[in-house]
Structures are given as structure tokens and as C-alpha cells.
Recover the amino acids of this structure.
């Protein structure tokens, strides 16, 4: 099948893009097209207007200042994958990107497009959830920033209104040298994950866990933070016993069943993958668990 007829728009400025979305009926934003175009070709999505953000100035790039990494929404996944700043300051994103589709899709896919699409199994939303990111949303009424905990509203549904688009992502950075790990299980490499797990760990001078962030994707309608597992780690040494307890608590997560896996299987994977992500995070400190 091919997409239903639509009118294509290529704005050059943020104001022009916002104006188009405010004035056009049934318009969709094209941010990379790796998901939207396929959905349009299957006519799962039918749009009368397509507003392409590729030529809009000021929507791409990576900047680091005052402990925050600001990423333009139209920054290609490939640029993030090969960014020295991302690898050094946000290693969780680097690890997650290696599981996002294939090199060809990462050449075109954008971080803003992934967040707006909001697939429950997507890796980049899980990274944003783990880092407590702020999502900058722009429209004719102006710009607002939404904490990621309030950004995901349900299955493939976000806080972005029909006349708005994501303009940037602000990621609060953890101390340099922190531990990070990302693991997922998919039927084939590049497929959407059945379950994915992200781990962030910061240790104090006594080698005890000062701060932990554990996140799952693929288990529910959006990324899930495992606050109980984080509490089990905080204040104790990062060893096999601590990781095992955190993984056990992860298996209590509320999970969904679908054609790909049962809820019980997803809960099992949650425990296995959280343990492996923590093992990767610990390895950055030279700790073997």
C-alpha cells in the first residue's frame, strides 16, 4: 500500500512550523519518518498535511552547559551515536542507541521523532525517563518544558498537542565517571525490544551507592521507573547480592501481555535484564558482580 494523498510543507523557521501546525487541519509532523512514513504507507495513519521539520533552523545539535546536555529534537540518532560528548557524559544513551533499529534507520531517525512516536518498547524514551529529562515543546502559544514523568500519557500518547512539536530535550547529567548499562531482549537485533532495561549508578567515596536509576521499556504503555529497586540499592555496596535483590524487585512490575510475550515472561525478563544492566554499570567501576 501507499500513503493516502497529502500536502507536503517544508518550513524554514520555528515560527513558520508552529504557524502551519496551528492553521492546518489533520497535520502531522515529519521528524525523520522512520516510523511515521511506514504507518502512513499502511494507512494506519492518514494525514492531510505533512509538516517536515528537517529544514527548520535551530532544531538540531548537542550543547553541554551547567550540568545539562541540550539536544535539538531534529538531531539524528547517528549524530548522537558518534558524539564524543554523549559517549563521555551520557554513556547510557550511547549504549541504548546501539539497540535502536539499524545503521540505516539511525542515519535518518531523530531523537525528537522517537519521543513523539512513543512506542512502549523504544529505547530513547527509556533513557530520558532514567535521566529525568525535560522535554521542550513548542507551538504558536510559545514554548513549555515538561518533565518526562509527565510527558508520557499512555500508549503512544504524549503531552504534545496537535498544534505543537518537540523542539529540544534537556538531559540532567550525572557525575562524570558514573556507571551506566543498557540491555534488551528482542527476537532479532534491530527489532523493537520485548523488554529493555536501563541502569544508572553513582558511587560515593566509600563505594556505596549514592544514587541509582533503574528503568524498563517494553513492559507497559511507556517507560517504567523502578523506584523500589532503586531504594534497595541506595546506601549499600554495589555487589552481586544488591543487584540480585534489585532484580528480584523488578520482577514485581506490572506488565502487559500481547502477541509477542505474556506478562509473566516480561516480568521474568525485567529481572534478568535489570541484573545485566547493573552488571554493566558496575563494570565501569571495575566491580565484577
Amino acid at each position: 500500500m501507499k500513503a493516502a494523498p497529502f500536502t507536503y510543507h517544508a518550513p524554514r523557521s520555528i515560527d513558520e512550523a508552529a504557524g502551519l501546525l496551528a492553521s492546518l487541519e489533520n497535520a502531522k509532523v515529519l521528524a525523520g519518518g522512520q516510523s511515521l512514513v511506514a504507518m502512513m504507507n499502511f494507512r494506519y495513519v492518514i494525514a492531510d498535511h505533512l509538516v517536515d521539520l528537517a529544514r527548520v533552523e535551530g532544531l538540531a545539535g548537542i550543547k553541554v552547559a551547567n550540568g545539562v546536555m541540550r539536544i535539538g529534537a531534529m538531531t539524528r540518532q547517528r549524530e548522537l551515536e558518534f558524539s564524543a560528548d554523549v559517549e563521555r557524559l551520557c554513556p547510557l544513551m550511547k549504549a541504548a542507541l546501539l539497540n535502536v533499529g539499524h545503521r540505516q534507520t539511525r542515519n535518518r531517525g531523530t531523537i525528537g521523532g522517537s519521543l513523539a512516536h512513543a512506542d512502549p518498547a523504544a529505547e530513547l524514551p527509556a533513557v530520558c525517563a532514567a535521566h529525568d529529562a525535560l522535554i521542550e515543546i513548542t507551538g504558536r502559544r510559545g514554548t513549555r518544558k515538561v518533565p518526562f514523568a509527565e510527558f508520557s500519557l499512555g500508549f503512544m500518547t504524549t503531552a504534545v498537542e496537535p498544534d505543537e512539536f518537540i523542539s529540544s530535550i534537556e538531559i540532567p547529567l550525572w557525575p562524570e565517571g558514573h556507571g551506566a548499562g543498557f540491555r534488551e531482549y528482542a527476537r532479532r537485533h534491530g527489532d523493537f525490544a520485548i523488554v529493555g532495561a536501563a541502569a544508572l549508578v553513582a558511587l560515593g567515596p566509600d563505594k556505596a551507592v549514592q544514587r541509582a536509576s533503574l528503568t524498563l521499556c517494553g513492559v507497559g504503555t511507556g517507560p517504567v521507573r523502578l523506584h523500589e529497586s532503586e531504594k534497595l540499592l541506595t546506601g549499600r555496596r554495589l555487589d552481586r547480592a544488591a543487584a540480585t535483590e534489585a532484580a528480584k524487585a523488578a520482577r514485581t512490575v506490572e506488565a502487559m501481555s500481547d502477541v509477542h510475550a505474556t506478562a509473566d515472561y516480561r516480568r521474568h525478563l525485567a529481572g534478568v535484564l535489570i541484573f545485566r544492566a547493573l552488571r554493566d554499570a558496575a563494570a565501569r567501576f571495575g566491580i565484577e558482580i
Residues 155 and 233 are 30 Å apart (CA to CA).
